[in-house]
Design goal:
Elements: E1 2-4, E2 9-16, H1 21-27, E3 36-45, E4 48-58, H2 59-74, E5 81-83, E6 89-97, E7 100-107, E8 127-133, H3 134-150
Antiparallel strand pairs: 1-2, 2-3, 3-4, 5-6, 6-7, 7-8
Helix pairs in contact: 2-3
């Protein structure tokens, strides 16, 4: 999935997390019916570029993102923001600007830009502001769904 405008971009790739049995017990995943995804992110902003990887989304959460993107593209009333069980990624809809939708994506914890230091540094996360068209948002939703299908999930 790729979202980009003239100033910033973010690309997200999903892989199924395969915890060894001992780790699944430690993480409490034996009770969790929803598989977790390893999220690889490449981001570019005027402040700099970075890449990260974190097992921070469940499959159903990735599907929520795709549905949310489609609802925004259709102009439907929907949640202003999406956040997840693991607070590594957050998406927020800030409004429409002509034919563009203004989204803000915040990456924190394992996906913070390295120059900000770790979470204990008291430096707030760096938001990625994007102004993108509806067709780009639908294409990103389609790509997320395709990645999930490729993993053999739903």
């Amino acid at each position: 999935m790729r979202l980009a405008d003239a100033f910033s971009s973010i690309q997200i790739r999903l892989e199924l997390v395969r915890y060894p049995p001992w780790m699944a017990k430690v993480k409490g995943l034996v009770r969790d019916p929803e598989p977790w995804l390893d999220v690889s992110v490449e981001a570019r902003t005027p402040a700099g570029s970075w890449a990260c990887e974190a097992d921070c989304l469940r499959v159903d959460e990735a599907q929520w993102i795709a549905r949310w993107f489609r609802a925004l593209a259709r102009g439907e009333e929907t949640h202003q923001s999406l956040d997840f069980e693991e607070p590594t990624l957050m998406f927020e809809f800030l409004g429409r600007e002509g034919s563009k939708l203004h989204l803000q994506i915040v990456m924190d914890y394992d996906c913070r830009p390295p120059w900000l230091g770790d979470v204990a540094s008291d430096v707030p996360p760096l938001p990625i502001d994007l102004r993108i068209g509806r067709t780009t948002l639908v294409a990103a939703a389609d790509d997320l769904d395709s990645q999930i299908r490729r993993l053999g999930l739903r």
